[in-house]
């Protein structure tokens, strides 16, 4: 009948949009999804958006040249956006280990003066930036706070470099263990807003600051007892297909338990 014909026609238009690998098509799908009249096609639109996003990322991805790979192997510069993300993650992990074992008490920079509670999230972000930036600058990697991203959104930190003649960026979303969105920000903020920057090519880092102070339970009621447990739980929430481009790093900034005498 006429209703079935119109339904099939709409589905056909949605499929056509999902096959177009450019930003206007992605915007059109998102706008259709937001229309109340399109609610009956919500599942089809969500599926089309996911497929279009994966195709768009694949179309934008470019392999590193031999020269770029050579620079990476000699520790001079990242070869592409994935290499940049891996480099930043390595330095974040090394920085976390250094902070906990640092005799200069840099761990205290993340806590209030009386050590009664961690500092607010933005203050912790600024301390992390101050520690991370000098580690990456010699590798031609800039780390900045709240740089402009696609669609007028902002990431907490953004690492950037020039790889093979093109600027690439990796957004870094930071959340404290007690943030109300700590279990979902990797999806709703990092992947939903920041990795859509064409220079990021869908790649991003989700950095959670673990203090062991007031960790927020997951939507399922899980309350992690360590930084490692929280990292495992967060990684498990990311679909396997996305784990190569969305990396979770949980920094253990908890205060060491005094050794018993």
Poorly predicted segments: 68-74, 147-152
Q: Figure out the total of helices.
A: 8
Shape label: globular
As a percent range, the share of strand residues is 5-15%
H/E topology pattern: HHHHHHEEEHEHE
Q: State the distance separating the first and last CA atoms.
A: 83 Å
Adjacency order of strands in the biggest sheet: 1-2-3-4-5
Number of DSSP-assigned strands: 5
Backbone CA Rg: 21 Å
SSE class: alpha/beta
Main sheet overview: 5 strands, mixed
Helicity, as a percent range: 40-55%
Mean pLDDT: 83
Task: Identify the notable features of this structure and list them briefly.
five-stranded mixed beta sheet, 5 strands, 261 residues, alpha/beta, globular
Polypeptide structure, described:
- This protein is an alpha/beta fold.
- It is built from 8 helices and 5 strands; from the N terminus they run ααααααβββαβαβ.
- It has helices at 2-18, 23-34, 42-60, 66-73, 81-101, 121-136, 185-194, 227-237; strands at residues 142-145, 157-163, 166-176, 204-210, 246-252.
- A 5-stranded mixed sheet has the order 1-2-3-4-5, with helices on both faces.
- Helix 1 (2-18) packs parallel to helix 3 (42-60) and helix 5 (81-101) packs across helix 6.
- The radius of gyration is 21 Å and the shape is globular.
Write the layout of secondary structure elements.
Blueprint: H1 2-18, H2 23-34, H3 42-60, H4 66-73, H5 81-101, H6 121-136, E1 142-145, E2 157-163, E3 166-176, H7 185-194, E4 204-210, H8 227-237, E5 246-252
Parallel strand pairs: 3-4, 4-5
Antiparallel strand pairs: 1-2, 2-3
Helix pairs in contact: 1-3, 2-3, 5-6
